[in-house]
């Protein structure tokens, strides 16, 4: 997933939780849906950055020989500039891109 192309804001925005929770009907369930999706996004970003930084693994045995790698710094800066996972998840929820279900409610039906 290309996180830069998502139109989520990079700064925190105050949102009306009552308006966000109209679809689900419960504010707490809405927060849990967004939080679980944010955890998934965070795991995706972490695995992606780990995959990209593996190429720069330190194979030398002398700790004093640490050097700065320009490409590694650029990769780190790219991921630092991304919107936070909660902002990405909230934007996905607003756009209706998140599939969610509550198994407890499904049992009651």
Quick recap:
This protein has 109 residues and is mainly alpha-helical. 55% of the residues lie in helices and 0% in strands.
Q: Number of helical runs?
A: 5
Uncertain segments are none
Question: Structural class of the secondary elements?
Answer: mainly alpha
Helix and strand sequence: HHHHH
User: Which percent range describes the beta-strand content?
Assistant: under 5%
Helix content: 55-70%
Ends distance = 35 Å
Shape: elongated
pLDDT average, as an integer?
Answer: 83
Total number of β-strand segments? Answer: 0
Major sheet attributes? none
Overall domain count: 1
From the alpha carbons, calculate the radius of gyration and give it in angstroms.
19 Å
Q: Can you walk through the features of this model?
A:
The chain is mostly helical and 109 residues long. It has one domain (16-59, 66-101). Helix content is 55%, strand content 0%. It is built from 5 helices and no strands. It has helices spanning 17-20, 27-53, 70-81, 85-95, 103-108. The chain is elongated and about 55 Å long. The mean pLDDT is 83.
Topology, element by element:
Layout: H1 17-20, H2 27-53, H3 70-81, H4 85-95, H5 103-108
Keywords for this entry:
mainly alpha; 109 residues; 5 helices; single chain
